[in-house]
Automatic annotation (TrEMBL):
Protein encoded by which gene: pdxA
Organism: Octadecabacter dasysiphoniae
Protein name: 4-hydroxythreonine-4-phosphate dehydrogenase
Residues that bind substrate: 126-127, 264, 273, 282
Gene Ontology MF terms in the entry: 4-hydroxythreonine-4-phosphate dehydrogenase activity
Localization terms from the record: Cytoplasm
SUPFAM superfamilies (UniProt xref): Isocitrate/Isopropylmalate dehydrogenase-like
Pathway: Cofactor biosynthesis; pyridoxine 5'-phosphate biosynthesis; pyridoxine 5'-phosphate from D-erythrose 4-phosphate: step 4/5
Keyword Protein transport included in the entry's annotation: no
Protein family membership: Belongs to the PdxA family.
Tagged with keyword Hydrolase: no
Length: 319
C-alpha cells in the first residue's frame, strides 16, 4: 500500500498534534507521510525526514516531507505568514497522489481567514480548492461515520441563498456522484439513497414551500425511472432515527446544517469528511482547528484516525 499524504493544515491548530497521535496509533498498519514544517510538531516528537513518499513506508519515526514555513508556531494564534505554506502543502499532497506516489490525501483542518489574510486564498474551503486542483467543476462533500453517511447538495453558502442555488442539475449531479462513489469507493453494489426535502415536512403538499413539488420530486422521479433506488423527498426530521437509517446507504440533504447536525450528534468525534467526485481519494477529520485547546496535549485524534482508515480503505478499493 502506498502512503497517505497528510497536509499539515493550520499550524496553530491541533493538526500537528492529531497527525502525530494518529501515527502513534495506526502508523505501523497504515503508511503515511506528513507535509509541513517539522518545527511545528509537538515538542518531543520523534520524527524522521524523508525525501520521497515511498521512504515513508520504512520510516521508524513520524515521517515528514519537510517544508520551511519561515515562522514559528504559536498554538492558538494563527500566523498569516504560514498561509502560503499551508496552501502549498495541500497542493503537494495532491501532486503526490496524482503522480501515483501516494494512495490518498488526508487534510488536517485549515483556518480560512488566516489563508485569506496571508495569501488571498480565493476558495470557500478545502473542498472547492481541491476541485480546482483536480480540474473538476462539481465535487460533493460527504460526512461519514459507522452510523451514517450524509451529503449536502449545497455547502458553504448562507441559508438565505440555498433555495436559489438548488436546481435539478445540481441535485442530479450530487446524486450521481454520490451513487458512483458508494459503488466504487465503499463497495456497495446497489446503493440506496434517501433525499430530504428543503422545507419542513418536505413542503407538506405545497403548504410550506413549492420546491419539493416543482423541482425535487420531478428530479428524483427521473432518476428512479433510470433504475436508481431513491426515497424522497422525505421530511428531514424523521430521516435519522435508527430504523430510518437502516433503509438507506447515504442521505442527500439540501443544505449544510441539515446534513451535519445529525452526523455530529451521532458521532461527534468519529466523523470523516470525504470529497466525492475527485480523481483521487481525499478524506479529512470532521472538525476544525480547535485553537482553544491547541498545544495542550489534550486534542482527540479519533476523527483523524478514522479519516486515515477510511482513506486507506477507499484507496485500496480504487486500486
Amino acid at each position: 500500500m502506498k502512503p497517505i499524504a497528510i497536509s499539515c493544515g493550520e499550524p496553530a491548530g491541533i493538526g500537528p498534534e492529531i497527525a502525530v497521535a494518529a501515527w502513534n496509533a495506526v502508523g505501523r498498519d497504515i503508511p503515511m507521510v506528513w507535509i509541513g514544517d517539522p518545527t511545528h510538531l509537538p515538542d518531543g516528537t520523534d520524527w524522521q525526514a524523508v525525501t520521497t513518499a515511498a521512504d515513508a513506508a520504512t520510516a521508524t519515526a513520524f515521517p515528514v516531507l519537510p517544508r520551511d514555513f519561515g515562522a514559528p508556531r504559536v498554538p492558538g494564534t494563527p500566523n498569516p505568514a504560514h498561509a502560503q505554506g499551508v496552501i502549498d502543502a495541500i497542493a503537494d499532497a495532491v501532486a503526490l497522489v496524482q503522480s501515483g506516489d501516494a494512495s490518498a490525501v488526508c487534510t488536517a483542518p485549515i483556518h480560512k481567514q488566516a489563508l485569506i489574510d496571508g495569501a488571498d486564498f480565493a476558495y470557500p474551503g478545502h473542498t472547492e480548492y481541491l476541485a480546482a486542483l483536480a480540474g473538476r467543476d462539481h465535487v460533493v462533500m460527504m460526512l461519514a461515520c459507522d452510523l451514517l453517511r450524509v451529503v449536502p447538495a449545497t455547502i458553504h453558502i448562507p441559508l438565505a441563498q440555498v433555495a436559489d442555488q438548488l436546481s435539478a442539475a445540481t441535485l442530479t449531479d450530487t446524486i450521481l456522484i454520490t451513487h458512483a462513489a458508494l459503488k466504487r469507493d465503499f463497495g456497495i453494489a446497489q446503493p440506496r439513497l434517501a433525499v430530504a426535502g428543503l422545507n419542513p415536512h418536505a413542503g407538506e403538499g405545497g403548504k410550506m414551500g413549492m420546491e419539493e413539488i416543482e423541482m425535487i420530486t420531478p428530479t428524483l422521479d427521473a432518476l428512479r425511472a433510470e433504475g436508481f433506488d431513491i426515497a424522497g423527498p422525505l421530511s428531514a426530521d424523521t430521516m435519522f432515527h435508527p430504523a430510518a437509517r437502516a433503509r438507506y446507504d447515504a442521505a442527500i440533504c439540501m443544505y449544510h446544517d441539515q446534513a451535519l447536525i445529525p452526523i455530529k450528534t451521532l458521532d461527534f468525534s468519529g466523523g470523516v469528511n470525504v470529497t466525492l467526485g475527485l480523481p483521487f481519494v481525499r478524506t479529512s477529520p470532521d472538525h476544525g482547528t480547535a485553537f482553544d485547546i491547541a498545544g495542550q496535549g489534550i486534542a482527540d485524534a479519533t476523527s483523524m484516525i478514522a479519516a486515515l482508515k477510511m482513506a486507506a480503505n477507499m484507496g485500496q478499493a480504487r486500486a
